[in-house]
Amino acid sequence: MIRASRLLAAAYTARALYMTASLALSYRSMRVEADRPEEELPEETPGLTVIIPALREQAVMPRSLEHFAALAARWPTLRVLVVTAAREASETPSGTSTTEDVCRRLADQHNTTLGREVFTVVSYPGGGRRASQLNYAVAALDDLFPPADDYVAVFDADAVPDARLASQFARAAHGRPAMIQQPMLPAFPGSSSGRRSAVMSGQDLAAFRRTLGIEYRRIQVARWCGPGRRPRLLAALARPMVYGVGSGLIVRRDKIEDIGYFQEPHDDLAVGHRLSMAGEPIAVLPSVNIVEPYQSVQAMARAFSSVAFANAATRHDYRFAAAHPTRLSATGQRLLAARALADGAAWALGPAVMGAAAAHLVVKRRFKPVVAAAVAAGLIEPVVAYRLRGRVLDDFRASGPDGGTWRQPAPAAAIATYMLQPAVSALGPWLLGVRASAARLTGRDLRFTKTEHLGEIAPDTRGGTVHG
């Protein structure tokens, strides 16, 4: 038994060192690509339609549309389609502007300033969640913008895109990949007020680790394993499952139907799953878009429970992919699905298993493996992550007149709670288990709620509500 605990501690130490190296290598790659000089957009650059699903987003939409208007001023083929929800009108107090009211007013203002129809607002009449809004918007594209050889991007309502998006998109789209991801990084603006709890400060670093050390790196490895680029067996063993990330997700328009459109409750994961198992080429941009971080552990756990549900639906995505054309072998598809399910199991059970192994070693007075793991995962990795996160935020270029700076968490609190973050994140799948059990016992449907944005990235609205 002691041998098993020592092996687990050694594996945890090795993983921490690997993640540290992955962060450093990913940042180096991102910096090299981002430093390439910006060029005028080639005439053959595909058009891009940005879809922003919005529900109760009055506080954040003004800033978001302002940034996309700044991009559109230098990007003739950029269009923005905001899809609101009709049901919001019944949930909004009388006399208060709905998100649709705010967006239509702002769309008219920006279109007048730009001298062309860049912004369009449509209202989804149903009761579905974000994926249903996106599918409604995609269906509306055929009438609003005739089918073309272009791309559709999904950004969160609170997203701030990097000003280099146009040139980086043009470069990535030249190879016609099925999907292009601009990584998403949660961060508060430097001007924001309010204290951040120690646990959520550590979560800020953990989110950066996921963004750069996992999501960005996986897409790079997936491209390295592309069909025909490596020996088939080596590629099948090394190819990772790519997870689509909902803000900054860019999909070739003709591929949306091929993957069965967007899926509830977490549209982005299924896009990445299905394109990965189809063997489609996926690219990543060397910049991030910044969104508002989760405000509390409770909000994060609720959001992560829907992510866990989507990850558990990998079996459904596998069956879909197996029934449709693919560039991968059946074995390659099975390996990808197995990896995704193993990731989910490690996410939910890993902290408990590693905690038990560490406790066992301490009881047996075998301190060296525990100390080595603590130094690697609790000191080296978070210190490197903190420094690299600061550099990525310094490198970020916001479009619009008020680029500003972005806030780092308190270093002592972030580093001190970093090792706890796997257990904190595991609250998501555990909450899903509790909610699913309760739903089964009561005979009710399992429902997920949206993450509410409090407007930390939005300008001061003197009370939090924008009035038309």
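the 2nd protein, sequnce then structure:
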Amino acid sequence: MQLRLFAIGLAMMVAGTCAEAGDRALSVPCAEAGALELSVPDDWAVDIRRHDPRMPPTVTLAAPDGLAQWVLTPVWKAADRKPPSTPAEIRSRVQRTAETLGAGASPLRELPGGLYFDGAAGQTPDPYTRLRQGMLKVGELTVSFTAMSADTRAADQDQLLNRLGTAVHRAP
């Protein structure tokens, strides 16, 4: 019995190490505001786009099987924009987004520095069936996010929240 428990414990440690080894660090340049840094799955595609180098980037991460996608936009205060930065402003913006998507009845859920909601069925393009949207503060950045997945990849929704919870803002 003790040998079996030892083997199970060892297998869990190895599995945890392999999961962490499957991550890579992503640094998203945020012009004069520094960078947003977070860990992302190693095998996911990353696309960072912006219309102008001084503007906030949109980061799209996609699972290799195409059944999960995360979209992040870190925004910083600048002369021409003032993103929501207080808890009340973030709450108002997330609530308004939920109402716009027809998910106003969905409860807002807290995460460190922000809020999110889970959308109702039918609010995502195929092949996705689940939607999670929200906003949080990471240092001086306000990060909006959308996670979409198929039911078979539902755990990716929580994975994004965990990764955003450990993200950091590197000031210039």
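Strands lie at 23-29, 35-41, 45-49, 58-62, 68-75, 109-111, 114-118, 130-138, 141-149, 168-170. The chain has one domain: 24-170.
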